[in-house]
Design brief:
With 220 residues, this protein is an alpha+beta fold. It has helices at 24-29, 102-111, 116-119, 165-175; strands at 16-20, 39-43, 48-50, 55-57, 64-65, 68-74, 90-97, 100-101, 125-127, 131-132, 143-148, 151-157, 183-185, 194-195, 200-205, 209-217. It contains four helices and 16 strands. It binds oxaloacetate ion and magnesium ion.
Length: 220
């Protein structure tokens, strides 16, 4: 058996923990109140999709949105990690999309139901290659962007996050033990919008990385 390589963390079947409404400008564009504590939800590892494979619109949605987010890859597990030690638990990063069936999410919100159908379907978590920690020395101050068919839709800086990465690692790990290979999606800045079948999505982190995905529709 070969040693596991963190640069293929998505193959390990570990948790994807997502933070919602972590940017005030995005909370506002969807008419949501600003959170006083992080809002958390999960995606299963089956949500991962890597470049070369398409994002699939779920058959039950007609309003699939992109949300570009910085993903934090956990390198050392822990429970109740302190904020001051939090960055020692980070192995690196990935550029991520939190694909969201917005019509289903609105329906779930109005009925007080969980967001699973809106957030956790197959291909709801497109990711870039693994980015080693050294390549982003200040993850609290990098620009994320996303284009649909060459049109810029999202362009935000992680400095705008309401809850910082060390705070999130500490907060989450008091509730859910973090393990090597887990991924934390840190929320999206403003500019979310719908994507259609055949659209081409391109996203990037400054001069660190870019990634490309096509959108297809699942017909059943
Ligand atoms: O669906 C939402 O608006 C919550 C969320 O994931 C985010 O803010 O990134
Ligand atoms: Mg999100």
């Amino acid at each position: 058996m070969t040693a596991r390589n963190i640069s293929r963390f998505w193959e390990w079947g570990r948790k994807i923990i997502c933070v919602g409404r972590n940017y005030a400008d995005h909370a506002k564009e969807l008419n949501n109140a600003l959170p006083t504590e992080p809002i958390l939800f999960l995606k299963p590892p089956s949500a991962y999709v890597t470049e070369g494979s398409p994002i699939l619109v779920p058959f039950y949605s007609s309003n699939l949105h992109h949300e570009v987010e910085l993903g934090v890859v956990i390198g050392k597990g822990g429970t109740a990690i302190s904020q001051s030690n939090a960055m020692d638990h980070v192995a690196g990063y990935a550029l991520c999309l939190d694909m969201t069936a917005r019509d289903i999410q609105e329906d779930c919100k109005s009925k007080g139901l969980p967001w699973t159908l809106a957030k956790a379907f197959n291909t709801s978590c497109p990711i870039s290659e693994f980015i080693p920690k050294e390549r982003i020395p200040d993850p609290g101050n990098v620009t994320l962007w996303l284009k649909v068919n060459d049109q810029l839709r999202q362009n935000g800086c992680t400095a705008q996050m309401i809850f910082s990465i060390p705070f999130l690692i500490s907060y989450i790990s008091k509730i859910i033990t973090l393990e090597e290979g887990d991924l934390i999606l840190t929320g999206t800045p403003k500019g979310v919008s719908a994507v259609q079948e055949h659209d081409e999505l391109q996203a990037g982190i400054e001069d660190v990385i870019t990634m490309n995905f096509k959108v297809n529709r699942k017909n059943q």
